[in-house]
Amino acid sequence: MMVHMGFELTEQIERHLIGDQIAWLTTVTPSGWPAPRPVWFVWDGSAIHVYSLTSGAKQRHIAANDKVAVHFDSGHGGGDIVVISGRAEVVPGAPPPSRLPGLLDKYAPAIEYMGREPGWYDEEYSVALRVTPERAWTIP
Asked: What is the pTM of this model?
């Protein structure tokens, strides 16, 4: 059974926002095509923070259309579905990724596994995006 709702932070949604390593951020291209991309993210209790490639297309997409979707991988057998829709914005003057609370706690092992340093992430992914959830749908 699919459950549609305005944005209410349920246990299922919060578990994905806190525990998942990868989310899929779908922006809309200026020509109207959906553009899903896997992203690293941090949930701060009210917004989802993502850093985009310095030369990435996400910020151009958001400038043309701020409506986005964020979804997570399903659970075993196709259940445990969470899709969040909301509005995204570029955050000028945001701290670099390594100074966003919680980001290095979550992704330092992945950065190290890639043979990189946190400064690499700061340089390559310097555009801060904030997604404010407006609604969600889930499948238990």
From this structure: 0.92
DSSP per-residue letters across 69-124? EEE----GGG--EEEEEEEEEE-TTPPPGGGSTTHHHHHHHHHHHTT--HHHHHHH
Closest CA to 103 of 122, 123, 79, 82: 122
Q: To the nearest 10°, report the CA torsion of 62, 129, 87, 103.
A: 150
pLDDT in tens, 34-92: 999 999 999 999 999 999 998 889 999 999 999 999 999 998 889 999 999 999 999 99
Check whether domain 3-139 has CATH 2.40.10.10, yes or no: no
Domain extents for the chain?
Answer: 3-139
